[in-house]
Write a structure and sequence with these properties.
four-stranded antiparallel β-sheet; single chain; globular
Length: about 130
């Protein structure tokens, strides 16, 4: 089983940047891909971005395209989410999770993921 731990959240002003990290441990060699989701209070968990481990293919939600970038460091078993030009509506708890298949463009539901991390809070002030 894969264990995931997110870090890097915090409070930032609108227009600022943050980089989130998701460190994976355990049976990481069996993982196809990783994804980032976010959940704001009173809202459903929303897909943000995903990346395959082997090739590094990425898929990013339209709501953050052009502002957020997902990447991975295979040697460190870590996936990153670089968030630029942050907006107050980006405020949420951000989670990483392990994808159940490598076809990430079709995997935008939380049901397609497992082994969720504990989440990291991102707050963007106006």
């Amino acid at each position: 089983q894969v264990q995931l731990a997110e870090s890097g959240g915090g409070l930032v002003q609108a227009g600022g940047s943050l980089r989130l990290s998701c460190a994976a441990s355990g049976r990481t060699f069996s993982s196809y891909a990783m994804g980032w989701f976010r959940q704001a209070p009173g809202k459903e968990r929303e897909f943000v971005a995903a990346i395959t481990w082997s090739v590094g293919n990425t898929y990013v939600a339209d709501s953050v395209k052009g502002r957020f970038t997902i990447s991975r460091d295979i040697a460190k078993n870590t996936v990153y989410l670089q968030m630029n030009s942050l907006r107050p509506e980006d405020t949420a708890v951000y989670y990483c999770a392990e994808a159940l298949s490598p076809y990430i463009a079709t995997m935008t539901s939380p049901l397609h993921y497992r082994n969720w991390g504990q989440g990291t809070q991102v707050t963007v002030s106006s």
